[in-house]
Amino acid sequence: MQRLNVVLTATASDSHTWNLTYLELLLREWGHMVTNLGPCVPHELLLRRCREIAPDLVVVSSVNGLGFSEGAVIGRLIRGSAELARTPLVIGGKLGTGVEDQAAESERLRAAGFDLVVTDSDGLGPFRDFVASMSMKATR
To answer: Residue 126 burial (CB < 10 Å; 0-12/13-18/19+)?
Structure first.
């Protein structure tokens, strides 16, 4: 398995940190390097740090329920950058407030550039499998 270089972030409006700490520890336990940008990350900072780091994976975590709306902006931002256009991009957590059509909103995030969208009801399985498959591909 290849050790991945991961950038971990929250959306610009999300001030929660426990989710970021948990994901950082989990990714490190799985053997990966993590740059945790913390909560309330402005889009310009996210883009600048990703360009500097050139990560193997960008993970966006949301707890405040605005992941569906803010995530699409982040996806388009990352995909619009020539240096990052092919960087795998994941978003997960409490992405909505519960009134949205989760399937339609998840598809909108995929259309904005996310390779994996994990809602709070999906659990960690899809994320774990995605990261593991990336690690395996990187070793080939």
So the answer is: middle
